[in-house]
Design a protein that fits this description.
With 241 residues, the protein is mostly helical. The protein has one domain. The protein has 9 helices and no strands. The chain is elongated. The chain starts with a helix and ends with a helix. 30% of the residues are buried.
Length: 241
Amino acid sequence: MVRLKSSEAASTSASSICGNLANLRELPNLIQMSSVKQALLQGQGETWVNELLEESLRLVDLCGFSRDVVCSTKESIQDLESSIRRNRGENATRDNINAYVASRKKINKMINKCIKNLKSSNQSSTPLPAIGTMLKEIEALDFSVLKSVLMLLSAETKQRSWSLFSKFPRTKRVHSEVEQETAAENLCSLNIHMSRKGMDNITLKQLKSAEMSIQELEEGLEALFRSLVKTRVSLLNVLSH
């Protein structure tokens, strides 16, 4: 969990966020531990346990929403690819770009509304036992990583980790990874789309690179969603006894 905290703090790129999604899935289901079960049963009815239940549901909903947004983003990229192929052109046309922009604007409104709701959620000031603190920290990490996914897709991130590579000579592999990262983030950036700048010369190769990054995000979110559902079911089972 310490490793995840340190990497999460510096995560702004698609590749680093995918890494954090994978790290979250590796965290054990602590609800299955006897000491955690005992603490939950002893605290049943207390505020911190009720908050854990509520937050576990919010996490499932947020992860499901993030997964759907990523899926919609991938579909909009695929639609743009198909349009270019139908036109038998190497670059996107103005109509192709306008259709893509309209789709991304709709998605971005949904993301901004969700992020606003996250910012307005109240943090608990209730004193917690040690196990309660640990479980809340894991939930906080889940929320933070999922929020970073939404911020990436809405172009809220201000720094790009791959920009550090510009200071060093690039190997062929590094150059390819940076190119893919750039394509993914440019296509997710509504600021670029709204002005149409940087999109006129978009190619199928760039779209495919972006699609690969988005696909990795989608797979990571799907796996995390299943893990969060499993954790919530375990929590409900413990408290129902």
